[in-house]
Amino acid sequence: MLVFAKIKSIQEKLKSLKNGTTIGFVPTMGALHEGHLSLVEKAKKENDIVVVSIFVNPTQFDNIEDLINYPKNIDKDLSLLKSAHCDIVFTPTPEEIYANNIQSQSFDFDGLELQMEGKFREGHFNGVGTIVERFFEIVKPHKAYFGEKDFQQLQIVKKLVEKHKISTKIISCPIHREKDGLAMSSRNTRLTKEQRAAAPFIYETLNKAKIQFTTKNASEVSKWVENEFKNHPLFTLEYFEIADEETLLPVETKVSTKNYRAFIAIFAGKVRLIDNISL
Ligand code: AMP
């Protein structure tokens, strides 16, 4: 496994590959877990070589404390990637990526960026668009792998490649969960013992909401979820929304031809967790 921190070095390596070598790319922010590794495994099966980036992208953080406290464990990450037979790891610094201008470009994702995470994390998707486009320019992957854990991000990246006519194929990967149902996340390591023990409540609530949505409308289900969190001693609900998977617009009236998904964001103290479920 090769590790590069410089754009020039990784590009030289990628250029030296035999013509026709297919590249699968998995962008991450590190603090890797089995969820990330499932993306690497899928990429490994579908491509000749796999490139994983580890980069905590400053421009996608709306909250400086969250950026500073984002978990980091590069030695463990490299050892996990080696065991997963990753071929190339790209670990640039912010300066390498942004030079001395750590700023996002502005994107129009046809309104996808205005919903949910876009409402609560100002500038987040401009940061995501900027870094994904930059990495695609550097790595030029045939396929890139994104988790449904960040479903809105996945839809936005698909929109980015469509609108900017980028030839990379975006592959979506299912959410990996802990045995008790909690969606795996690098941020889970920041939970206290008590918060971690209570955290399966998030997915349990999503599952109950899914059942309710078969007989109730979205607004009734949302009210029920809000109520469930109202008196929770450890978690504060930021939003719960049932939305159309394609447009991410909140559902008003159910249409049988459309696919819906329920999305949730909660705070456990200062730690923000998101999850979603297909309905
Ligand atoms: P992150 O390091 O959190 O930016 O995540 C890097 C990639 O891994 C993104 O495409 C995420 O959606 C994906 N990912 C993170 N957690 C999970 C999970 N539990 N299951 C599946 N994919 C995940």
Can you describe what's shown?
- This protein has 279 residues and is of the alpha/beta class.
- The protein folds into two domains: 2-173, HUPs (Rossmann fold, 3-Layer(aba) Sandwich); 186-278, Pantoate--beta-alanine Ligase, Chain: A,domain 2 (2-Layer Sandwich).
- The protein has eleven helices and nine strands.
- The strands form two sheets. Strands 1-4-3-2-5-6 form a six-stranded parallel beta sheet, with helices on both faces.
- Strand 8 (260-268) and strand 9 (271-278) form a beta hairpin.
- Helix 7 crosses helix 8 (151-163) and helix 10 (200-212) packs antiparallel against helix 11.
- The radius of gyration is 19 Å and the shape is globular.
- The N and C termini lie far apart (40 Å).
- Adenosine monophosphate binds next to helix 2 and strand 5.
- The site of adenosine monophosphate has 17 residues, from helix 2 and strand 5.
